[in-house]
Amino acid sequence: MQAAHTETQPAIAFQAVEKWYGTRDEPVHALAATDLAVADGEFLVLLGPSGCGKTTLLRMIGGLIAPTSGEIAIEGHSLWRNGQRQAEALSDLGMVFQEANLFPWLSIEQNIALPLELKGAPKADRAARAQALAKLVGIQGFEKRWPRELSGGMRQRAAIARALSYDPRILLMDEPFGALDAMTREAMNIELQRIWMETRKTIVLVTHSIAEAVFLADRILLLSPRPGRVDMEVQVPFARPRGPDLQSTPEFQAIVRQLRHRLNEIS
Amino acid sequence: MTAKPAPAQFAKRFVTMDGALPWITTPVLLAVLILIWDSYVRYAGVSPLILPRPGAVWTAWLEMLRDPRAWHHTWMTVYATLSGFAYASVIGVVLGVLIARLRWLELTLNPFIVATQVIPKVALVPLFVLWFGFGVTSKVIVAAVLAFFPILTNTAMGVKSIDEGHRDVMVSLNATRWQVFRRLEFPSALPFIITGLEIGIVLAIIGAVVGEYLGGNAGLGHLLIARLNAFETDQMFAVLIHMSLLGFIFYFAIGALRKMLVPWHASAGPRV
Ligand SMILES: Nc1ncnc2c1ncn2[C@@H]1O[C@H](COP(=O)(O)OP(=O)(O)O)[C@@H](O)[C@H]1O
Ligand SMILES: [Mg+2]
Description:
Chain B: It is a multi-pass membrane protein. The complex is a heterodimer. By secondary structure, chain A is of the alpha/beta class.
């Protein structure tokens, strides 16, 4: 599906959004004024060297930090009003962080089902859904364990299952596969593509792997640092489902080369 | 993904050793100590008024167990310890949460907390006896005052050390204030609170006993001083053993509470 952000309302809209962090010695300009529109159902990837503001941008979409200036709207709802986070803007949004952030006092199953519990789903449904998701991300058999009994990669998968558990329309992912080995990572990429094709969620994913970006994205935004800003925008035209073999085609390689070239220039 | 048998077995062997070792070493060491004690008294010719032989202490303790008055004293000490501990727990936990939450309250109270921490509180016991009388009330208060601070400071530390990443999860899930408390802050602080309770219960016993030393006519502390003044050293030692057992029971009760409430935490010991 090509991102056709024309007549319909964008899932995520930034209007001149700017972010400064106030540190004691000198303020950090983390993101220069940025306009952005992510279409409903689009798979957007943010790519860039570390420190270029990818996490900052994603956390602002998720309402975890407020912009210094500018307007953010999620599905038409203004995210901040008078310095107050607006709950209705965030009601349909799931987030996967760089760290798994599982709660150590909950079993894997309870962790996955936490969003459902907070939203008041019945207990039986929660368990069933958690089991299904554990299977989906490949950690079945570990549902009753404590998080500390799982490897880092498995914990990260449980975190992805947790974000999917209440089926949010918008999924924000901050380097979700950074902790995984190359093979698992590739498998998770294919899995994520499958989930996206099935559900047509709006996904914003942060990565610093060029190949991962080109493989997954409808559109890639390349960010550059000091201050963080969108340096380049690349549409990725390949049909879906994309298989592992796509990576060895000249077309794929061409986009990778183009991005790598620009990345080397800016970092 | 199936590479777990080898390390699991390895871990299991350690777990069983961890569990079994103290059950062997503790009685052996205890026996050795008692033997040394007994030989010393016997061969060095120490007066039984200074150090009675272990056998005499044992007999005195068995006698004490048959004496209903001794049980009355025991009950008074248990009562003073547990009520003091209960007050300290409730006030300590509530105030600890508030201090961790409200910056202005922490800043306001901090000088006083530090001051009361460094003042040797046991030195204030005569004052408590003067104010609250020779009855059980003064003992409850001493026990509460001693137990209060570790509970307060550990609770505050627990609430403050909540992981920022965990908070982000709750915010991104649009959790309500109550849900954040119930599902994140409380379970996260619980291991710290239990550590505070563990220190607190031991201090509560000390508080109650010291209170009994200095005033009134009830409790194991009082009994100990009475035996000392009567030169019944073997019976004094019996009271000492009795108190120590009480301390162990309370301490292990909190340990059991820990295993029950925070089995997920490393402090609850390995999972067998
Ligand atoms: N809480 C913060 N306080 C001060 N500076 C910050 C904070 N978070 C991020 N920064 C700075 O903002 C810039 C962008 O950071 P970040 O968004 O984490 O980048 P990325 O995720 O692309 O690595 C960096 O220079 C970083 O040091
Ligand atoms: Mg980052």
